[in-house]
Amino acid sequence: MPDVRVTIDGTEGSVPAGITVLEACRKLGVEVPTLCDHPAIEPIGACRICLVEVEKQRALQPACTFPVSDGMVVHTRSDRVVDARRFVLQLLFSERNHFCMFCQMSGSCDLQDLAYDYGLDHWEFDRAFPRMGVDASREFFVMDHNRCILCRRCVRVCDELVGNATLGVKHRGAETMIIADMDVPFGESSCISCGTCLQVCPTGALGDRASAYMGATDEITRVKSTCTGCSVGCGVELVVRQGRVIRVEGDWDAAPSDGLLCEIGRFGLQHDKRRRARQPQVRQGDGWVDSTWDDALSAAAKGLAAAGGELSTLVSGTATNEMGAAIAAKLPGTKQQLGTVLLDDSAGLAALDEADLFVVVGTDLTVEHQVASFSIKRGVRHRGARLMLVCDGDNGLAPWAFKQVGLNEAASVLDIIKGAEQAVVVYDAKRSSVAKAIAEAVPGAKCVAFTDGANTKGLAAAGVAEAFAGGAKAYLVVAGEETGADESVMAALGAADFVAVQASYAQPWADVADVILPMPTMWEKSGTVISADGVEREVRGAVAFEGLSDVTTIERLGALLS
Amino acid sequence: MGKVTLCSDWLDVCSGCHMSLLDIDERIIELVKHVQLLSTPVTDLKHPPEEGCDVGILTGAVSNDHQEEVARRMRERCKVLIAVGDCAVTGGICTMRNFFDVEDVLERSYVETESTDEGQEVPRSEEIAKLYPQVKAVNQVVKVDLHIPGCPPPADALWYAITELLAGRTPVLTDDMLTYD
C-alpha cells in the first residue's frame, strides 16, 4: 500500500497506510503513553490511556487501534487529551485497590509511572474497596487481582504468543475478572509456567515470587544473553541487582523466540534447590574435604593421568564453543558429549510459523524444547495448521493433534504429509533417523530439530563431536548445570577408576566423583554457543563467579596433564 | 507584614509525616523566620486557635468520628489546608482494614492479638472515638487545597510546598517530590 501523509503535533510525515495512529506516532518520534498495548500482541484499545485527538473525529480516539488515513491531523498533547488521560488514570486507580506503598512492583509499574507523569497527587473519586482475592497457588508467581487493570495483556500473550489460552476473563464491566481455564485456581490450571504473562503485566497484578521487593527499575541492570537450557537458544535478559540475578526475562528483540521463554529458561536456574559447588572438593574415603584450586587440580590431574591413555572427557551440551576448543586442544584422551549430539541441518524456529502441517517425531515438546511447542500451539489455534504426532505413549501436544501414530508406523503418515503445502518435521536428535526418513520422502518438507544440549553443534565443530561410548578408566565430566546423565553414563562413571567433575552443582556427581571443580553457570560465564538452527549466539556472564573460569580450569588441567 | 501562621495535626497516622517535616533539618531555622507555628501535635499547644491560621496541615487518614471532628476544625480555622502523606491523601495503609468488618477488626486488635491475655474485651466506653466502617482520605471529609502524597513525603517536597506558598505561588510537585511510597 502507498504511504499516507499525517500531521502529528504539528510534525508532518509520511507513514505506511494501514498502520495505527500509535505506530505512526512512534515512527515520527512522538511518545504516546500505553498500558494495554504491547508490541508483541494485537492491540485491543482496552485501557484508553493512549487517547489522542484526531481532527474531524467527534470523540477522542485510542491511538493503539485507530488506523491512519491520508491527511489525518493528530494532537497527542492538547489540553483535551491530557485531561482525558488524567481522567482515565483516576478511573483506573479508583476501580480496584492500588496502594503503591506496600506493592512489590512500586518503582517498576507502568501504571505508577503514568500517574507520576501526569502529576496525580490525589484521587478524585471515592473508592469501592472491592474485596479481591490473591491467587498464590502457582509456584513461581502470584496473581493479585487487587492490582489488575484488566488490560488483558496476560490473556493475549497466553493466547496469541504461547497458544496455551489458559487465561481468560469472566463477567463484564466492573465485575470482569481474569481467570484461569474455567475459573479454577491458577496453580491447578492448564498453565505451563512459561511466565510470559508475568513479564508483560504492566502493574503488580502478576508478581514474581523470587524477585519481589528485590529491586525496582532504577536499581537493576539488564544483561542480554542466551539461554542454555536447551538447543532452541532463546534470548534472555538477566535482571541483575548487586551481583545477583534476581529474575530472568525474555528478550523481545532476540531471535529465535522473540521474547518467549519456557519454565526452564525463566525459572529453572533461579529455583534450582541443589547445593552450589563453590569450593573445590576432593574425596577422602567416604567423605569430602574442601580443597584449594591448586590442590584440587593436582589431585584431578594425578587421578586422570593414572589411567594412562584410557582417559575420556565427557562434555555437557551447556559448555560454550570456547570450552569445546580448549578441551579439544588442551586435554589428552578421547572427548565425547554427555548427551545426544545434534548434527543435522535444522531450519529455525520461524519455519514453524509458516507450516500448515507439523509432524512431531519422537519428542514431547511440552516437556523438551517447550518454546517450540508454543509455535505449534499458536499455529494450530490461530492459523488452522494441523499437527500430527509420531511417537509412542502420552504426549502433551496430543490435545492439539488430529492424529497420533506410533514410531513404528511412521511410514503410514506419508500420504497425509504429501498433501500439505508446507510440512515441517519437528524432532529431537534421539529420533533423527525416523524423522529424516519422513522428511526425505516428502519434497519441500522442512526439518526443525532440537536436542537437550544447548551447544552440541558448536562442540562438534570445535572437535568434540562423538557421543558417549564408554570404556575409559578415568573420566573428566564437564557437567555445567546438568541435573544428571543417562543411566549408562552414570554406570560407567560409577565403575571407573577415577572421576573428576567440573560442575556448578555437586549433585548428582558427588556420588560418583573423586574431585569436584566448581564451574560457573550460564549466568556467570561468557562465550558463544551454536543453537540447533546453526546460529551462533552469545552467552554473557551477568554476575561474577568466585573461582577459576570454565576455560581456565581446562587450561590449567591440560597443562598439568601434558 | 507579620509571620505566616501554621497549624498542624494528625489523624489516623504513624506520625512519620511529622518526622518528615522535621527532616527539613536546619532549614527549620529559616522556616521560623517566616512562619509562626501556632499548634502541632509535638508542641504544647495542640489545637488551632479560634482566631484561625493561614496554613493548616493534616497528616493521617480519617478513621473515626474524633478524627473527622479534628479535620473539620482544622478546615474551619485555616485558610489553606494541606493533606500531607499517603494516609491523608488516599487513606493509605490504614485502608487495609476496609476489607474487613469493623467488629472483626476490633476483635482481632483487642482480643485475638497473640500478646493479649485471656479474657480481654473490646473497650466500649462512650468516651472512646467510634471507628468508621471505612477509612477515608481527608478530601472525602473536608475540602483540601493541596495534596502532598508519599509514605512519608520527602522533606524536600514539604519544604518546597511551604516555600512556594510563602512566595504566593501554588506548588506543583514533580519528579522526586511526587512519590506514592
Keywords:
heterodimer, A: 562 residues, alpha/beta, Ubiquitin-like (UB roll), Alpha-Beta Plaits, Rossmann fold, 4 domains, eight-stranded mixed sheet, five-stranded mixed sheet, 14 helices, B: 181 residues, five-stranded parallel sheet, two-stranded antiparallel ribbon, 6 helices, 7 strands, 31% helix, globular
Task: Give an overview of the whole structure.
The complex is a heterodimer of chains A (562) and B (181). The radius of gyration of chain A is 27 Å and the shape is globular. With 562 residues, chain A is α/β, with parallel strands linked by helices. In chain A, a hairpin with a 2-residue loop joins β1 and β2 (11-16). Chain A contains 14 helices and 28 strands. Chain B has one domain: 3-Layer(aba) Sandwich (Rossmann fold). Chain B is built from six helices and seven strands, in the order βααβββαβααββα. In chain B, the strands form two sheets. In chain B, strands 2-1-3-5-7 form a five-stranded parallel beta sheet, sandwiched between helices. A two-stranded antiparallel ribbon of chain B has the order 4-6. The mean pLDDT of chain B is 95. The interface between A and B is medium-sized, with 19 and 26 residues.
